[in-house]
Specification:
The protein is α+β, with helices and mostly antiparallel strands. Helix content is 43%, strand content 17%. The strands form 7 sheets. Strands 1, 9, 10, 15, 16 and 20 form a 6-stranded antiparallel beta sheet that branches. A 3-stranded antiparallel beta sheet has the order 3-4-5, with helices on both faces. A hairpin with a 5-residue loop joins strand 6 (112-115) and strand 7 (121-123). The mean pLDDT is 89. Residues 452-471 are annotated as: Disordered. Belongs to the CRISPR-associated Csm5 family.
Length: 550
């Protein structure tokens, strides 16, 4: 039975580190690296504020409100680095970094890289380019457009079959239209729909790692007895990239749909030519024909330069010698190369390949059949012996069983990463619990202070109401009573003739016209004053009180 739409589930397994640009970077203002474990922790502004105390927030605010120059940037870098322990609890999941990146961070964070002759400071931005990710859960994602582009290159190469250009003036678009015998509307790739491949890897291991991209010459060039380095290597150029780690078997799942138009009358003005209605087997064959040839050619050339990490190389070669190669040949799976630093050869077709080779400053570029250098994955900038290629991905079509050898290699031989992940998550959870405890205590203290402030407010209101109900005479008596109470509370004894006695005496002098009730109330307070200062038996005092007696 023929279906108009034929769906296939594709399982993607990265065989080497993979980076697909997201036009975003980790910058020292939104990440820190834990010195002990070399773990990168990304965070957003909300997490930063949650992790800092009020005083620390004010310090940060003072820095960012300063002059927006390189000095401010280095201060921000240093501030986050110095407060990294408080930020870890609120950061995203840790990402392991290469040992060289950890050292580079420790050496340069918050410092100026160099000063130019004109005094200008060159800042260490320490940017790490992020790989493409799902904005909902921050897991890595293989965009369908990247996958489809790689498949298109392989199909075009198969059609061209190594033929040279018939007309050197022919442009790329014209060339592709000639090969596909169609224009935009009749492009056969419109019959192939490929969805984004979502992350399905284990949560026990990091999905990504931060690595160096370093440049190395493909062939040794010796001049005056010295091995010549590539221009990028000479200038110590490198990139810091977040890469999808090749540690997860079938780490991504996506779909491919073929539109079958056999039930529709062929019209070359509206539909692609019938010979370009590819089956899934034909697509797999074209991809394997193009990418496997490139894979082996590159692998052997890198082996000659002793660039590749030995255990990775051994495992790959063993895989290919066993069942995997048969499955590739049978069209059950196919190889792709996608993402950054896949190399110019993976983007161009055999027969018409002409790659621009940049020369030294002031020299015109040259055009060659193959590049002069590779960009490779490294743990250290100076590494020449333990490197990995970028971007190799195995794609399985509707797999009914697992490739046990591949699965064991990728999942069981990276136990150190599983242990690392558990340790970092434990640490992060512990710091989070500590932070939550600090926050809870802070909230409890705030609640106590609020209750105390409320009690004081109620007391003040009651005092105001009490005083509002008093007569002028009672207010003066109350003032004397409060002075007495203050003295009693502080236990400051006075002699007769002191300030308290003097205030009492002056008040009694004003009571001639007071009503009897007020005089009686003042008399009680006056007796307490005399008792407090020990003047109950004093004759002058007794005489003074007579003015209050009825």
């Amino acid at each position: 039975m023929t279906h108009f739409l034929n769906h296939y589930t594709l399982k993607y397994t990265p065989l080497s580190p993979l980076h697909i640009g997201a036009d975003e970077s980790y910058e020292p203002g939104n990440y820190v690296i834990d010195d002990e474990a070399g773990a990168l922790y990304g965070f957003d502004s909300q997490a930063a504020l949650a992790g800092l105390s009020e005083n620390e927030r004010q310090q940060l605010l003072a820095i960012v409100n300063g002059k927006p120059d390189d000095t401010m940037l280095t201060k921000v870098q240093a501030f986050f680095h110095n407060h990294r322990e408080k930020l870890l609890a609120f950061a995203k999941q840790p990402i392991p970094t290469a040992s060289g990146i950890k050292s580079l961070y420790q050496k340069r964070i918050g410092k100026t890289a160099q000063h130019e002759g004109n005094g200008r400071r060159i800042i260490n931005k320490l940017e790490i380019e992020r790989t493409f990710y799902n904005p909902v859960d921050a897991t890595p994602l293989l965009p369908g457009s990247s996958i489809k582009g790689a498949i298109r290159t392989a199909l075009l190469d198969a059609i061209n079959d190594g033929e040279r250009l018939k007309d050197r003036r022919e442009r790329n678009q014209q060339f592709q239209q000639r090969l596909l015998a169609g224009n935009f509307h009749t492009d056969p790739m419109r019959l192939i729909s490929i969805g984004d491949a979502a992350w399905q890897g284990s949560v026990d291991k990091p999905a990504c790692q931060v690595r160096f991209a370093v440049n190395r010459k493909r062939k040794p060039v010796v001049k005056n007895g010295q091995l010549i380095k590539s221009q990028a290597e000479t200038r110590e150029l490198y990139q810091l990239l977040e890469c999808i780690a090749p540690n997860h078997y079938q780490g991504f799942t996506g779909s491919l749909t073929l539109h079958d138009t056999q039930s529709i009358a062929q019209d070359d003005r509206k539909l692609p030519k019938q010979r370009f209605h590819w089956t899934i087997k034909e697509i797999a064959k074209a991809c394997n024909g193009f990418y496997m040839e490139l894979f082996w050619r590159e692998l052997n050339a890198m082996k000659e330069r002793h660039y590749l990490k030995s255990d990775w190389l051994n495992q790959i070669e063993q895989l290919m010698e066993n069942d995997l190669l048969k499955r590739l040949n049978d069209g059950e799976a196919f190889m792709l190369r996608i993402g950054r630093h896949s190399g110019a050869e993976a983007l161009t077709l055999g027969g018409v390949r002409s790659i621009k080779i940049m020369q030294g400053r002031g020299e015109k570029p040259k055009w060659e059949k193959e590049p002069k250098t590779w960009w490779l994955v490294a743990d250290d900038i100076a590494d020449h012996k333990s490197l990995l290629p970028f971007g190799w991905v195995l794609v399985e079509i509707d797999p009914q069983s697992h490739d046990t050898q591949l699965q064991n290699w990728l999942e069981k031989s990276h136990g150190d990463l599983t242990e690392w992940m558990l340790q970092q998550l434990d640490k992060q959870n512990r710091l989070k619990q500590q932070a939550e405890l600090r926050l809870r205590k802070k909230q409890e203290q705030k609640e106590v202070e609020r209750q105390q402030a409320e009690a004081l407010r109620v007391k003040q209101q009651e005092e105001e109401r009490r005083r509002a109900s008093m007569t002028p005479e009672q207010l003066q008596i109350d003032a004397l009573r409060q002075k007495l109470q203050q003295k009693q509370a502080s236990n400051l004894r006075e002699q007769i003739g002191g300030p308290l006695y003097g205030d009492m005496r002056e008040l009694i002098k004003q009571t001639e016209a007071w009503p009897a009730g007020a005089k009686s109330e003042l008399l009680d307070v006056a007796k307490d004053v005399l008792a407090f200062i020990g003047a109950n038996g004093n004759k002058k005092a007794k005489e003074l009180l007579k003015a209050l007696q009825p």
